[in-house]
Specification:
This protein is of the alpha+beta class. Helices cover 46% and strands 13% of the residues.
């Protein structure tokens, strides 16, 4: 699994076709934030089934299963696969667990084996603080301790991420929200992750998806990322690199949903896992579609919806996800074809939910986020398709789907980026 230069045919399959450099940079930020909103969409349903402590256990397994895989993939793609602290930070900068600005990480490296980071602002904390200190401790202590280690182990199994201070905040307006040290202790026992979590995830088709091709020339930005830039912005990368990064960011979301489903199944059953994944998809897909409509400046009609669906991370990347979006007379038609995402074993992921008929609400949620009077209904697949939907306008007004309303409680739903554009 390695990145490579590619020809025109490879480039056509990458996300972001037809978008200029500035829009690709915007899309990268939106997709990173959209990945972070996955838990905001899914965890309310997990809490309802497993309570707070069960939610923490599932969240740990979820991120522990997904993040080492996608961290290594991004290292390979952009050529920063070293074993030092700076490399750990580079991976975090392109991780859906740390979307830029919404989680405002500030990094400092004092040597190959030592560094610090702090969060000047943490949108995840803003979401959880109103729920009380028990939930803050669950996130900032019980979940973060093992999952920070799981992210770091992809770079160096002897890396140790330790808090300087963290919430609950005392005083209540303390800034930065938290601060951490990262050290590589060469004499320490290497961190090992539980096989029951990691082995099934390494076996997924998502984990074995070939890396996106890096398409040059890279005249409008970086084609790789060999050294840490603490002030990294998505605009720094070239258009070709951004399209490859988008493919990997979309795959991060699929890996996280797959890992969440497996974590739920281990504690319940297949049906419960599939049900929660369908709720998760509906919530995050609807919120992200609304954000993309604003970010891409589309009109609230079927043409605008087609643009959003073509650039929605839940329906990317090819070839892991095979989808078509096309006009069919006065309708818009979305279809899913045979692909690895539809063939994942166990609970599967989002695409498995779509082709299994468990997530029609997600298609409606995406459609109504752009076209408020849209109506989406499943239709007979054609040719080799696995599932298809026809989307029309002119329907009766309807309240926002409860799954989308739950996800919208996150501050990320209406978050606006500020540090944009070239330095």
């Amino acid at each position: 699994m390695s990145s490579r230069l590619a020809g025109a045919d490879d480039s056509a399959a990458l996300p972001g076709a037809g978008l200029d450099h500035a829009t690709l940079a915007t899309l990268a930020r939106e997709w990173l934030l959209g990945g972070h909103l996955i838990d905001r969409a899914g965890m309310p349903h997990v809490i309802g089934r497993f309570q707070r402590d069960g939610m923490a256990e599932i969240a740990i397994d979820e991120w522990m299963g997904a993040s080492p895989i996608y961290t290594r993939r991004m290292q390979e793609l952009l050529g920063f696969g070293r074993d030092d602290v700076a490399c750990i930070f580079q991976g975090m900068q392109l991780d859906i667990g740390a979307p830029p600005e919404f989680l405002d990480f500030r990094y400092s490296v004092t040597g190959p084996d030592a560094g610090t980071f702090e969060l000047a602002y943490c949108g995840a904390l803003a979401d959880v603080e109103p729920m009380g200190d028990d939930y803050v401790v669950a996130m900032c202590h019980h979940i973060e301790d093992p999952t920070f280690d799981a992210t770091a182990v992809a770079t160096n199994p002897r890396a140790q991420v330790r808090p300087v201070h963290r919430p609950p905040r005392v005083p209540a307006d303390r800034h930065p929200h938290c601060a951490w040290t990262v050290r590589i202790e060469h004499d320490a026992e290497p961190v090992t992750l539980p096989a029951e979590v990691t082995v099934p995830m390494e076996a997924t088709l998502a984990a074995r998806t070939p890396l996106a091709p890096l398409v040059g020339p890279h005249g409008d930005g970086w084609g790789s990322y060999p050294e840490l830039d603490p002030d990294l912005r998505t605009e720094d990368f070239s258009s070709g690199a951004l399209r490859a990064i988008l493919a990997e960011v979309a795959l991060q979301g699929h890996l996280l949903s797959l890992s969440a489903g497996k974590a739920v199944e281990r504690r319940a059953d297949l049906g419960t896992a599939r049900e929660i994944l369908a709720h998760q998809l509906c919530g995050v897909a609807g919120v992200v579609a609304g954000r993309l409509a604003v970010a891409l400046g589309v009109t609230p009609d079927l043409g605008g919806l087609a643009t959003v669906l073509e650039h929605h991370p839940a329906l990317a990347p090819a070839p892991y996800v095979a989808r078509t979006v096309e006009r069919d007379g006065d309708d818009l038609r979305l279809a899913i074809g045979p692909c690895d995402a539809a063939a994942e074993e166990g609970p599967g992921g989002w695409i498995s939910a779509l082709v299994g008929g468990r997530a029609d609400d997600a298609v409606s949620a995406m459609a109504r986020a752009v076209v408020p009077d849209a109506v989406a209904a499943p239709v007979a697949p054609l040719g080799g398709e696995l599932a298809a939907w026809a989307i029309t306008g002119g329907g009766d007004p309807a309240p926002e789907h409860p799954d989308v309303a739950l996800a919208r409680f996150s501050a990320g739903a209406d978050f606006r980026f500020r540090r944009v554009g070239p330095r």
